[in-house]
Amino acid sequence: MATDTNPTPANDPSSTDNPLRPGAPAVSDKVRSDRELLQRAQAEGKTLRAYVKLSGPGWLQSAITLGGGSLAGSLFLGVLGGTSMLWLQLVAIVFGVIMLSAISYVTLSTGRRPFEAINSEINPALGWGWLIATAMANMIFCMPQFSLCYDALDKNLFNLGGSEGLGDGTTAKWATTIFLLVAASFVVLLNVKQGKAAKIFDAFLKALIGMIVLCFVGVAILLFSKGEFSIGAIIAGMIPDFSQWSSPAGELGGEVSKMAPEASAFWTQKLVASQRSVMIAAAATAVGINMTFLLPYSMLARGWDKPFRGLARFDLSTGMAIPFVLVTGCVVVAASASFHNKIDEQLASNDLAVMQESPTFAKVKKDLLARVDTTLGDEAAETSEQEKLQMIAALPVEEKRAAAALVKRDAFQLSQTLAPLLGEKNAKLVFGLGVFGMGFSTIIILMLINGYVFREMLAMPDANGPFIAGVLVAGFSGASWVALWTDPDTRFWLAIFASTFAVMLLPIAYVTFFLMMNSRRILGNEMPTGGRRWGWNIAMGAAVLGAIAAAATSIYDKAHDANQPAAFPTVMTLLTVYSLAVIAGFIWKAKHPTHQT
User: Quick one: where's region Disordered (predicted)?
Assistant: First the structure.
């Protein structure tokens, strides 16, 4: 594909060329009108109203980041650390906004399609790695979102009147999934069209996100009014505490530290391993690699250019960051109030028969057996399971609470726990709508991103055929959850595993755009200089280091995962092959300075 050889910014603010439509003589009247409105507002120093009216790409980001992964991660953060881990998602989204702001700055300053610019000016291996990783993430992430929507309908919304819901039958799953796929495809195609259809798409997404925010914020307000948590605890939880990387968080941390040395060492290792996993997952779902692809192409599709840079930062802060912090924070608070350092009376009992009646017993049994094995030592193999169960029943209640904290809960269990406060019907309705909105909005955006990916993959940036193909590939991949993921205990948590995979790919995008922000060949006179350049590089550098650290930890955990021994060599093989491709790409660029991809 021939590319632009001009090293200076390609998109002068006065230009009317549409970067997604090469050869088109002008952008639409709507884009020109938006540009004039923004420039007039900037000249008058009254930009807020114009920013609110023109916002859009940030809300697309919000629709994808508020998905099943964010919900699952927030729930487990609340279970493990209570409100003490609220800071994690706040820090993650701040880093995400920094990097997405850098991506918007590069895109709007040049007007060039990022995939083309990366391949032409930096390294084709980075460009293709970014694109392929984005497509893979779209297809992986789509599966748990369909599953999440089905669960919301089955467990909450379709049994409000006392019915049994949709059930666990394959026919019901396929029928519901096909309906969701058709509905999502229709909404995505609205975004392709101009005029009223595009406005309906924007309004629909904003309304969906607004519903999600209202559902979970409403629950948090009610919990506060009932005295379930304090504002002081919320503020304290917003302060970063990096010791949680290596020691148990929240009230459990204090209890574990008071245990006998053997018990303390055992539960510290278990809790910290879970905390690290969920911290990585939470960071990955705040900003994923596919979000770095969506932002520039959604802005270019709207005809945004250099005067829109301030609007882009405002849009990311208000449309993406604020809804994300509100929703995930409220889920953490609700999970903390319901599950953190709490167990039912049966599990706390020293009577084995009573303890076995606990609905949580089956899920904590494995960890509790492992705990008594450490006490028995060499005698563990010779001790009967019945004797071990008696030892489990005799364990202190603090150890049983630690074991319960390792049990993954879902939003539907949370709604049942809060039913006495909200009322059973209200709890089902609020959580059902919130969870369904999170899943469905994410499906829409993942399909949209994949449409952009296929256009770039086939070097046809204005063609509808590749776009529709990409949309359908992501949609059908997501719909395949019925055949591939049928275990009801694991469906909800697919988001966590997908997030762990995606976090290993995120540094690809972060490093690439870090290089672009420091490339005069790409940015020309728009490249930040002096103090602005230092500011950008320090902020981006922190985000890059955070992404690399999260990826390295994820790889380390895979290396020590006894349940999946093939995971580590597979991941390392892919990383090695890709690293060699990147090195080869830089060597090739040095020998072939012509701008060909």
Answer: 1-31
Question: Do 436 and 417 touch, CB atoms closer than 8 A?
Answer: no
Tell me which residue has tokens 């060949």: 521
Tokens of 160: 């409000």
Residues 6+ apart with CB under 8 A from 81: 244, 249, 250, 252, 275, 336, 340
Find, among 507, 34, 75, 547, the residue nearest to 333 by Cα: 75
- Its pTM stands at 0.80
Contact 101, 313 (CB under 8 A): yes
pLDDT digits (tens, 9 = 90+) for 251-272: 888 899 899 899 999 999 999 9
For residue 333, the number of C-alpha atoms closer than 13 Å in the C-beta half-sphere is 27
Residue with token string 């607004």: 210
Q: Which residues make beta-bridge pairs with 596?
A: 2
Q: What Å distances lie between residue 143 and 63, 137, 269, CA to CA?
A: 16, 10, 31
Confidence of residue 14 (pLDDT cuts 50, 70, 90): very low
- Please tell me the total number of residues recorded for the chain in this structure: 597
Using the predicted structure, report yes or no on whether residue 58 has a pLDDT greater than 90.
Answer: no
Does the 35-344+409-591 domain belong in CATH 3.40.50.300? no
From CA 83, how far away is CA 362, in angstroms rounded? 27
Q: How far is CA 448 from CA 118, 553, 584, in A?
A: 22, 31, 32
* CA–CA separation, 481 and 506 (whole Å): 24
Give strand pairing partners of 2.
596
Number of H helices, E strands in the chain: 31, 0
Average pLDDT over residues 332-358: 89
What is d(CA 570, CA 585) in angstroms, rounded to the nearest whole number?
Answer: 23
Q: Domain limits of the chain?
A: 35-344+409-591, 352-406
Only one residue has tokens 């489990």, namely 392
Is the dihedral angle over the CA atoms 199, 205, 208, 214 positive or is it negative?
Answer: negative
Tokens 């701040």 label which residue? 94
Lookup: tokens for 314: 């405002």
SS (H, E, C) 412-452: HHHHHHCHHHHCHHHHHHHHHHHHHHHHHHHHHHHHHHHHH
From first CA to last CA, the distance across the chain in angstroms is: 6
Query: C-alpha distances in angstroms, 446 versus 19, 103, 291, 451, 506?
Result: 22, 19, 9, 9, 16
Contact in structure between 324 and 65 (CB atoms under 8 Å) = yes
pLDDT tens-digit series, residues 283-318: 666 777 888 888 898 888 888 888 888 888 888 888
CA gap 158, 162 in Å, rounded:
9
Helix (H) or strand (E) holding 554: helix 530-559
Cα radius of gyration (the chain): 25
Q: Which residue, chain included where needed, has tokens 């990147």?
A: 582
